[in-house]
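User: Last request for today: this protein with calcium ion, please.
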Amino acid sequence: MTKSSLLLMSSLCVLPAACGGDDGTLVVTIYGEEFVEEGISADEMDDGWAVSFDSFVVTVDRVEIAGMTISGVDPVDISTPTNGSGQQLSQQDVAAGEYTDTSYTISRVEVAGKATKDGVEKTFAWDLAAPTRYLNCETTTVVEASAPGTFQITVHADHLFYDSIVAEEPQLFFQAFADADSDADGSITWEELSAQGIGAYDPGNADIDNLADWVIALSQTLGHVDGEGHCDVEGQV
Ligand SMILES: [Ca+2]
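Assistant: Here's the final one, the structure of the complex with calcium ion:
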């Protein structure tokens, strides 16, 4: 084989599907880490509230990977314990190769749970329907004929309690949400969040003046890949 033909082959194989190699299995999963499955302990929060989730239902759409678009995925309750494996969204046969430039949409997050501190309990059930596109995700998914590849959408639930949208190392607080329970019936309703200002929370340049819009904005920071991998974010797509 001549040197030039070798070069030609290697350049063609930049696109995995063009390599003509074996197929492998690509599995797409979603995982909420221990924060969703087990809750966020008082030690992990910065104001001593402990948060746990009764349900954390995420609707994923338009997963683009390996030249495919996976749509119509059923919503998944990621609060179901999985011992670290997450839950499967899809399984497909694809050409073996290394895949980058992945993206996906989280179109809805429905979260219900409670927070406790010093014998006080506050419940919440919020429907966060703020479609968010996560793209240019920082990960490489390797699919081999002999070994399946996994692309994990990782949901960082603790971000819902950040005290800043822009800080490098925000703190985790629940007190402002607890204080929003204006009728003191133990349930923090969406109407109560909408009526409450954001206090000392830092919205950066975002035009946010109530806790409902605040938690919507934070819900658009939940999506990651393969643990700590970041993606670019486009809101309201
Ligand atoms: Ca209330």
